Amino acid sequence: MKTQFTKAGGGAKGQGARFPWRFAIATWLLAFAACATTNSGSLNPFATQKTPQQQALEVEPELEAAGFSQLPATTADQDVKLKTLPALKLGYYDDQNGAKHYWLADPDFCKCLFHGDEASYQRFENIKLENQVAERDRRAVEMQQQQQQQMMMGPPGFGPPGIGFGGGSGGFGFSGGGIGFSF
Average pLDDT, whole number, for the chain? Predict the structure, then answer.
């Protein structure tokens, strides 16, 4: 059974297909807006992806601050094994007593393996969250400062309150209270 959306009273030819198209476009725009506001680079087509080196420079100090041990690959065999692990991806394993151990391999920059226990992992997650909140707050302060600067400037063509003298094409100008005059 096919359902058509038409105005009461029939409507013009082809109007029955208008609603589904509008709905589809509205849904697409809503989904696009949701992607644009998420922090995940994989969902946001406009987000700049961090290079592996930038990722390492960001995550390695957080791991160290959380108590992860940095275990360098000191032999060629260790270096080969390190390169078989997924780079800069946090993983874990359970030991024979059921305790979780977390690791992150960096075969390209520090050529090391970071290793930590459950407590280190919890501290790492807290540090990441604190850094995300701090970054969000920093962006909010920047945005607020930009808005305040724009409000001080007033509408286009007017300036900030004060007196100024300006040239131009040989003229002499006064401005005050955000309104400019030139002779």
Answer: 75
